[in-house]
Structure formats: structure tokens, C-alpha cells
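Consider the following assembly input.
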Amino acid sequence: MNEQRTRLAGTQIDAQPMASAVANVEVDRTALDQSIADFVVRNPAYYQRVFHKIHDTTSGIPLTFNAAAALLGPLWAAARGVWGMFWGFLILEIIAWVQIGRGTWGELGAADLQQAIRQETRAQEFLDRAAAASAAGEDPSRFETLGNNLMRAAERSREAADAAAADAMMILITGVILLVLIRVVQGVWSNIAYEKQYSDWRVEPENEASGVNMLGAAFGGLLVLAVMPLTVYRFTIENVPDFLLAFPATPDHYTNTARWLEGQIDAAASAGSGTFDGIVFGVRTVLDTVSLALMGTPWPVVMIVICVIAWRSAGPRVAIFTAAALAYIAFLGYWEIAMETVALVGAAVVLCVLIGIPLGIWFGKSLRAYKFAEPVLDLMQTLPAFVYLIPIIAFFGTGNPPGILATIIFGMPPVIRLTALGIRGVPETIKEAASAFGASRRQILKDVEIPLALPSIMTGVNQTILMCLSMVVIISLIGGGGLGQVILEALQFAAKGPGLLGGFAILFVAMVIDRIVQGAFRRADLKH
Amino acid sequence: MSEPVVELSNVWKVFGERAGETVEAAQSGTLTKAEALDRYATVIGVRDASFSVARGEIFCIMGLSGSGKSTLVRHVNRLIEPTAGTIKVLGEDVSAMGTKELREMRSRHIGMVFQHMALMPHRSVRENVAYPLEIRGVPKSQRWAVSDHTLGLVDLQGYEDRLPRELSGGMQQRVGIARALASDPEILLMDEPFSALDPLIRLQLQDQFSELVSELKKTTLFITHDLDEAIRIGHRIAIMKDGGIVQVGTPEEIVTQPADDYVREFVQGISRLKLVRAHTIMQPLNGADRSVFADARRATGDTDLDTLIDMSVDADTPVVITEGGEDVGYISKAMLLRGIQGGK
């Protein structure tokens, strides 16, 4: 085969048959042509020719012109299933058609003309009154001046209207040129896009459209009909009917649904009040414990403990920074309130970890449970906090415990996700080894899975802490206390000074917690 | 030999929902792997495997990847449940065991070594080796003592407090072997333990391992995809193909009498010098003139070719083979050459 090709090329008589330098290899297109014909179905000879040309291009854009694509525009793309191109050029064509429409029937200057006519009528009125006044022997000059001024204004408006009408011609020509240009580009681009689709089709013939699809063309045509005329109409006509601009919604739907929903929520809240109160009680207990530790203990003790923790976990530099931050908070009188914030975050994190890690382990082991949980976790993270604050108020009331619940909703997903990820990432081989030595499931969990997933779990806890911190301000909206409340009050009264001071206090609290936690985890990481 | 320590009879393992049907169909007729996948959407992992391993024997299971050898050996400690067939370990039916009994058997009687070591990265070498004992609830002092002793057996003194990742691949696998030996089990399951190591280390470990195991008299099932390794280590070898056992025999039997073309292809490149023994290539003496061999050198029937070459290279007469002090046969240089070649 190779020998034959070399002979055909006629360059080297005694070439080694195995040599395959790029230049020596003859391009054999029989198989390729067959495949192209299978792909394009209609008009294979043309596409074989243009695809060859595209394949032979060494640099730059291969220049071929597809007359059908240029003539039919987006419809060609729809028929051939090149949908990306269909949408791109449909939008471009709409822009061109809007220009053409504006030039043809756009009534450019219509507004100016109407104004001119109005001004002329008013001027005429004044002039009439001036005439009447002078007939009555009064001084007409006041009306005359007004009338003449209005006349001049009307003239200017007429000039503007004429100029706009003259512009219409230019706009029309621009639109036509634009359309022709777009079609030419389509003619050139279509073969390139189609060749790309062909390449993709070779890899995934079931996922890429091939041949000419009349249904596709019809669908494309429908889309064009649905999109093009309305859009062109909207942008060319001066007075667009209201229903095109705003969706004709019925206010009743809204009020009825909202009222019904409110009733449902109230019913659910009173029906489950025992459960909700229980949850609030549980959260409050955790919060009170943390608060007591932070606020019941004398402040010098707490300060020293925090600084020592910072030192032990993150080193002297973080300890100095921590001391400075605590001094700032204390001297500005934020101590109590900052400790409340820390207690809120702490309680939320404790609950997140206590609930999140077992859930994460479960989701890590059961793929089915994880499939159910994943959308819920996504929702918890994507839902803006403001949205679920309202149901939380409805079910749990206001104050710190509901604030913690809101924080948990936002902060728990990372620890669940990363625990599950860590558990799933434990090598099967190590688990197998443990069970080969007689370990029970509980022992495998304790000795293999949790230790090996620990770095991932710790990352999750870290992220959860940071996310809980970011909720501190938001929960003040539902009566959560702490530094968030300071910020909220400053916002309400646009109090710049207090706002800034409180903001820095929050920043310092967040930075201290972040530094300490990061430092502690880095040390834990080093051990692994 | 004595009563078998591990005994598998007609073990089948079929993966997929319609495993039972597949086994029935395959038992009543022939069903290839492709047919099973096609007809029942099942994968045959092990096909009608039977063998028994005697106490102290090193039994190698050799096959290419996908031949089902790892699946087969996991039936012995029931990491994989058989679809059909019985597995007896130390005379007890493994399938009939409850969870507790099974865990007891795994932790006391079976040690396992894995291709990818499967050491716990967060535990020190000592604690890795001690883990099987920890599972059994052995106190820490005892665990550590046993662990240090076992690490001594594999020449790893001084590495007790290191983490596995600080050790080279060969050393890690020695930790793996020490862990398997820690609870002094009767049976060792070796799942391609040396495959991931480089050739030199592999040779070293093979020698060290055979020595250790024959010293400790462990019954060993040794999985490998390397026939050389199987021959170096194994007392007997089972050759697997597509889940079934093609041939079981001593290394010499496998090399001299391959059961089919598949095995023949494997053994082609194997050096026969250490495998083939005098009695297989000798010519019987009966009837021959014994006076000719009066000054000839003498060797026993199980002398290997390598030694025979040394003996005959500077001798003029053939080597005489004796059996219980009696001259029974002789080997000339020509016969020796043919023997090396593989008997034409």
C-alpha cells in the first residue's frame, strides 16, 4: 500500500516502504468521501469538495461560499441541524430587519411632527386671542409674543421631523447592507461550521444531526416566525400596544395564592408548634451553654484563653493580631456584643457539625441517599438567605435561636458534602484489607473511613465556620443579636461612624476565628 | 499429604442479577463468557473451580489479568460470596459461617497481603502490623511486642515508628507481609503481592518470602500473573483462564506436560534448567551393559538439569542416575541437550 502510494507520488524510486514522513503520505479520500456522503446525505459532491478545501487549508479561515446557506439564512442552519449558527445569525438578522423596518414604515419623526402640529394649534389659539383682544381694544402684544414663540418652536419641530424622515432612507439602506453582509458571512461561515459538526458527528453519530432534516427546518421556520415579526414590530412602531410590553397578569392570582399560602403556613405552624418549640428549645440550650462559657467567664480569662489558643494553633504573629483585635473590640465597648456574635456562630457551628458529619457519613456510604440529598443541599446553598428568613419567622419566631437555624441552613451543606466526599474517597483496597483481617463495619468506620476522610471533613468544618460567620449580619434582620444588630441599626439610620466601627469589629472577629481555625487545620494536616 | 487446609469444590462466581440462571445454564452445557454476557447480562468471574491445598504448601494461582484469580482467592476468606460450590477452610464450611464466626476466622486463621499494600496511611508501621490484633482486642503491650517481633521477621527493625509513606514500595510490602503474619495465621492469601514492585526488589522479596514461609510452615495461596514467579515460589501451580482452572500441577509438570496450547504458550519461555529433573529425561538402564558405567558419575533422580550439566560437562561417560542406591538409568550429553530444549 505504502509502496504503491510512493510510486504514485513519483518522487522517490527507492523509498523505504515503512517511511511515513508527513510529506510522503498520500491523502486517500475514498473512505473520507463515503463518510462525508453518509453525513450530508443531500448534495454530497458539493460538500465533499468544500470539506476537502477546508481540510487542505493550512492557515487562516478557509474561504468557501455556500449559496444555499446565504440564500436561506437561518433556515439552512435549521435544516442542517447547525443550531448554534441558527441562533447566532437569527439574532444578527433581527437587528438588520429592525433597521429595514424602521426605514420603511417606522414613521420616523412622527413624534416631532405631532408636536409641531400641537404647537401650531396652540400658536393659532394665541394669535386668535390676540386678534380678539385687539378687536376689544386691549393690548394684544402678550398673546402675539406667545403665539409667535410657539410658531417658531413648531417650525423647529417640523425641521426635526423632516430631518428624521430623511434619516429613514439612510437607516433603510444601512439595514439592507447589514442584511446582505450577514448573509455573505453566513455563506462563508456555514461550511466551516458544518465541517466542525461533521467532525463531531464522526465521534458521536447519535448525538449530532446529519443530513437534511425537514422537521428541523420547519421548527426553525416556526421559531423565526415566532421571534422575528414581533421583535421587528416592537422596535419599529412608535406606539406599541401594552400587552406586548408587560405580561397581562391578573393581580387576583397573586393575592389569592398569597392568602392561601399564608393560611397554610399559619395552620402548619400552629399544628406543629410543639415540634418547632422543641427545636427552638434545643437550639437555645446549646446557645445558652456557649454564651455562658463566653460571657459568664470574666473577660480577662476569655481574652487570655483566646490569645493562647491563637498562639498554640497559629503561632505568635496570629496571637499578636488576635490581641490587637480583641483590644479594639474591648476598648470600643463591643466586648459583650462581640461575644454574643461568637456564641451565635459557635452554637451554629456546633449544631452543623453534630448533625452534618453523621449525615455526611451516611450520604458518603449510600449513593441512593446522597442522590436524594444532593438537590436539597443545592437548594440550601443557592436559596438567598432572605427567602427562608420568612418561613423561619413563621415557624420559629424571631430572636437568636431562629437566627441560628437560618445560619445552619446556610452553613451546613459544606460539612455534609465534604464529609461524604471524604468517606467516598477512602480507597476500597484499604477497607477490604481491614475487613480481610476481621474488622466489623463499625471498626472499619472508626479505624479506616473516618481517619482517612478526616482532612476532607476538616475542610468541610472550616468552610462551615466561614459560612456561618457570613450569616451574622443577615440574621439580625430576624432579631438575631450581636454585632450584626449594630450594623443593621447603623444601616437604618445611615450612621456612618457607628456602622464603620461595628463593621471593623465583625471583620476582626471573623479574621481571628478564621486565622485560628486555619492554623489548627494546617497543623492537623501536617500530621497526616 | 495430610488433610487439606483449604478446599474448594465446584466454586462458581457470577456477577449480575441473573447469576443463578447463568450457573445452571453453564453447568448443563457450555456457556462462554461472551454468551453469558449476551444472554443473561452476567459476568462469569470464577467457573467451576476445585482444588485443595495441603498444610504448609505454597499453592500458586497464575493467570492473566481478568482471569478471575483475585476473585477466586477472595472466596477463601469470603470477601466474595460464591454463587455456587463449597469452600472449606480448616475443615469448616466458610459459607455456613455467621458474621461473628467469619470475622473470628479472618482475624485468627487467615492473613492477607494485597497488590497495592493497602496499608493505613495514618498509622505507624507498628500500628499497621498490629491492626489485626487490635481488631481481636489484644492489649496494646502485647500488640506492640508481637508487631515488633513480626517486623523483625521481615527485616524491618528500626522502622516501627515510621509512617508507611516514608517507606519504599518493597518495604511497604514487607510491612504488608508482617501484618498478614502478625496474628500467626495458618493460611496466607497473597494477592499479587510483588506485581507492583520493580524486578530486582521483586526477586529479593520472592526469595525472602519463600524462605520465611517454609520456615514458618504457612499454608499459602499465592496469586500472580507471572509464571516465573509462580515457578520460583510455588510447590504447585494452578493456571487460570477465563475464570476456569486449566491445569494444576507441580512446576515441573506444568512445564513438561502442559495441558493445552494456552499453557504451552506460557511455558515456552521458561527456563527448564531448575525445573526438569533427571528422572524425566533419563534412559532406563535395564538390559544395558552396566560395566561401561563403572567409573561414571552418579546422581539421584530428582537432580535438576542445571546440576546435571555441571556434572557432565567435563566427563566422558554419561551420568548414571541412582534410585535408593541402585543404578536405574543414565543421561548422555545428547539427552541432556534435548532435555534442555524440551524433548524433540
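Residues 1-16 of chain A have pLDDT under 50 and may be disordered. Ask yourself how this observation constrains the way the partners meet.
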